[in-house]
Write a structure and sequence with these properties.
InterPro entries: AKR, Aldo-Keto_reductase, NAD(P)_OxRdtase_dom_sf, NADP_OxRdtase_dom. It contains ten helices and eleven strands. The chain has 289 residues and is an alpha/beta fold. The protein has a single domain, classed as NADP-dependent oxidoreductase domain (TIM Barrel, Alpha-Beta Barrel), CATH 3.20.20. A seven-stranded parallel β-sheet has the order 3-4-5-8-9-10-11, with helices on one face. Strand 10, helix 6 and strand 11 form a beta-alpha-beta unit. Helix 1 packs across helix 2, helix 3 packs across helix 4 and helix 7 crosses helix 8. The radius of gyration is 18 Å and the shape is globular. The mean pLDDT is 96.
Length: 289
């Protein structure tokens, strides 16, 4: 069985299955989550069920997701790590208004306001949310987060939506504790970042970790996943999630959900003991896609 915990930045030990809170917003990740009490109950259930890592961002809502987490969980348990991100902005309900901002003044403000909304003096893990911002050089953006770490506002720095070249450029400036990228059974575009994380000791958090409906032949993928899942009396989604834990020791999936039952189902994947043959079969499904 894979290890059931993972260490971020050398000093933050969390469970291998985190919770991605992005869905606890309005439609299209805009506005308040319509069932506020249900969202609070779900977050508390997650912590009670053993979740020790929660992923959010200032652009989720914007801001409403961080506020909801504070309302539900503050004061936080000592073993709970909350990661948030800065560098994206939304100009309205439509996704077309999403843009990346990287100038130092904006990033500094974003980090300070996230800390305020979350009710913490220091953010455990703070991600630069995108490497696509053009209003400041990428290296300057990373240096801004390094300065915030030196000032005590950030404990560890992460990168989201960056290229392999940007990851290496960032590491030349400051230690990088975590990376997030789109990566799952059928979409392996983040493979180079996963391998770079393994080599550097960074944690790799795949987003959309349970999907297997992409690639050239999604029906074949689904058939294989359903066949494997039947042998474990599990769902194909559970097997897809369990595969991440076997595929790499640095992986920290952050599946999201809005129901306690689904959250419990996700956490139960930690007990699925995939055979080496099944891990290899799943790995080969879309290798390099």
């Amino acid at each position: 069985m894979p290890a059931n915990t993972i260490t971020i930045g050398g000093d933050l030990r969390v469970g291998r299955l985190g919770y991605g809170a992005m869905q606890l917003t309005g439609k299209q990740v805009w506005g308040e989550y319509p069932d506020r009490e249900g969202g609070i109950a779900l977050l508390r259930h997650a912590v009670d069920a053993g979740v020790t890592f929660i992923d959010t961002a200032d652009v989720y809502g914007p801001h409403t997701n961080e506020i909801l987490i504070r309302e539900a969980l503050h004061p936080y348990p000592e073993n709970l790590v909350i990661a948030t991100k800065g560098g994206f902005v939304r100009g309205g309900h439509d996704y077309s208004t999403l843009g990346a901002v990287g100038n130092p003044a904006y990033l500094r403000q974003s980090a300070h306001l996230s800390a305020r909304r979350l009710g913490v003096e220091r953010i455990d893990l703070y991600y630069l949310h995108s490497g696509t911002a053009t209003d400041a050089p990428f290296e300057e953006q990373v240096a801004t987060l390094a300065a915030l770490r030196d000032e005590g506002l950030i404990r560890h720095i992460g990168l989201s939506n960056v290229t392999l070249e940007q990851f290496h450029a960032a590491r030349a400036i400051t230690p990088i504790a975590a990376i997030t990228a789109r990566y799952n059974v059928s979409a392996r575009a983040g493979e180079d970042l996963l391998r770079a994380a393994e080599q550097s000791g960074a944690v790799f958090s795949p987003w959309h970790p349970m999907r297997f409906d992409q690639g050239d032949d999604p029906e074949h993928l689904r058939g294989v996943m359903e066949s494997i899942a039947r042998r474990y009396e599990a769902t194909p989604q559970q097997v897809a999630l369990a595969w991440h834990l076997y595929h790499s020791p640095v992986t920290l999936p952050i599946p999201g959900t809005t129901t306690p039952a689904h959250l419990d189902q996700n956490l139960a994947t930690a007990h699925i003991e995939l055979s080496e043959t099944d891990v290899a079969t799943i790995t080969a499904l879309a290798q390099g896609a």
